[in-house]
Amino acid sequence: MLSVTGLDIHYGKIHAVRNATFRVGHSEIVSIVGANGAGKSTIMWTLAGVLKPTSGEILFDGKPLPGKPHEIVRNGLALVPERRRLFADLTVHENLVMGAYLRRDAAIAEDLERNFSLFPILKQRLKQYAGTLSGGEQQMLAIARAMMSAPRMILFDEPSLGLAPIVVDTLMETIRQLRASGMTILLVEQNAGRALEISDRAYVLEVGQITKEGPGKDLLEDPEVRRAYLGELA
Ligand SMILES: Nc1ncnc2c1ncn2[C@@H]1O[C@H](COP(=O)(O)OP(=O)(O)OP(=O)(O)O)[C@@H](O)[C@H]1O
Ligand SMILES: [Mg+2]
What we know:
six-stranded mixed sheet; 10 strands
């Protein structure tokens, strides 16, 4: 569904991502794990159309990804950004409506209800300002807002950041549920263990370069990955 080949991304002279090649198949959960500054968010913002790559090819459904962020959202690719980036001074309901702002179809109300069945707490909090939700609730709202654009694929940037382990359990279960309903998912995480557990396939990104790839379970058992990302002693 998403096929990225030879992607290079620069910030001025800084070569943040080097020759990255990866793909995500229909209804797969694929993760990119890597440490602080590896280039994970840089890749995500590029897929969302906010950053422009210096070179490389990005195909979505076999076609070049459109250039502008709103065209990419309309094509069915939605980002749940790092640190949620909610509209803190808008209510839960208003944030959800913002997620659907590009749509002209009649299924918006239906999708709102579907979100409430996935995240019942949001229905109880409709009039609450997003900035006053708990961290876990904010993450749910960020996911629900992305879902309101009726995506076929969701990009999750570091969704577990700042959440208690038990809340991360719920979050990972939600990502699994989304996939079970046919969604395609690209997940980037520093929290490598949690990401690899739920991933069909995964890539390791080190200072801008993909250095390993394989099934999530295999990388979870890889001694180098365990040493570098799972705090295991040599
Ligand atoms: N706006 C920017 N201008 C210049 N350099 C940047 C900019 N944003 C990111 N970088 C650099 O690009 C590299 C990759 O950053 P990026 O945010 O993609 O990493 P990351 O893997 O998402 O890290 P984290 O896990 O901490 O979120 C880092 O060296 C960072 O300092
Ligand atoms: Mg990041």
